[in-house]
Write a structure and sequence with these properties.
Layout (H helix, E strand, L loop, with lengths): L8 E5 L10 H7 L3 E6 L9 H9 L4 E7 L3 H6 L6 H13 L4 E8 L6 H17 L3 E8 L16 H8 L8 E5 L2 H12 L3 H12 L9 H6 L1 H4 L13 H12 L17 H14 L1
Parallel strand pairs: 1-2, 3-4, 4-5, 5-6
Length: 285
Amino acid sequence: MIHQFPENSDIGLVGGSVLDHPQIKEILNLSQKFRVINPSSIKIDVKIYDILETLKKKGLNSITIAPETGSETLRKRINKKISNVEIIEFVKAVESLKFKNLKMYFVVGLPFETPENIRETSLLINQIREIFSGKIEVTFSIFVPKPHTPFQYQPFTTKKELTERLKYLKIPEDVKVHIGSYKGALIQTIFSRAGEELGYAMLASLSDKKDLLKLIESEKILFDEETAKTLPFNFIDSGVNSSFLEKERKKAEKEILTPPCNTELCRACGICGNIQDLRNSKKVE
């Protein structure tokens, strides 16, 4: 409850798209006692100008957004419907409200990524630098293909490929840049894909101080698409049809966007049907 917090406390709002909450204005208005309200990340949308203005008045000085890439083509392929023009207009709104810091998250190693896409990311960052007068920080994470997603069988980016792509980044000197850990992303991919042998390898790695990657077939797990299709996570039923994921991948190849989920009209992926079956079974119980 709000009255349990000390006066002038800071509060964070955490979620996938916090400011899309249908009652976000009421939530902000209820929070009179908080000195700063800090959303974890903000959807790129100039329509929320009044909400940004409210956040600024409450003491927020830093805005965090996730363009993912400067390439509109590549953004479509990861099903993110936002243009560079919209990003630029959003940054102009942030600048007009005199926010002091802008943090942006990008991803390298995305499926279908080309050197030209990296150049487009550089261009977008340079354009934003010209518009925004405050401090800018950009973080580049390395793409990790996750099970039960359209790119689940995507080979992990090799170190050589990553190094070559990063050469095309030309970012202003006064923009602070963070590059994610390659080994960290690689280990994430191993953990996402490996089976029970991973547990034994981890134990041996800890007890015998051996390199984990040498104790399993890491090369095949990371870089061989055909091997990925036979890995253990395929036996786990997430509720989403594998055929749906394959269709989504093919749509990504053709730059076809999938609209937001409408559970009243759509049963394409299978998950809503499974949830309804579960609800019905509970009613019977």
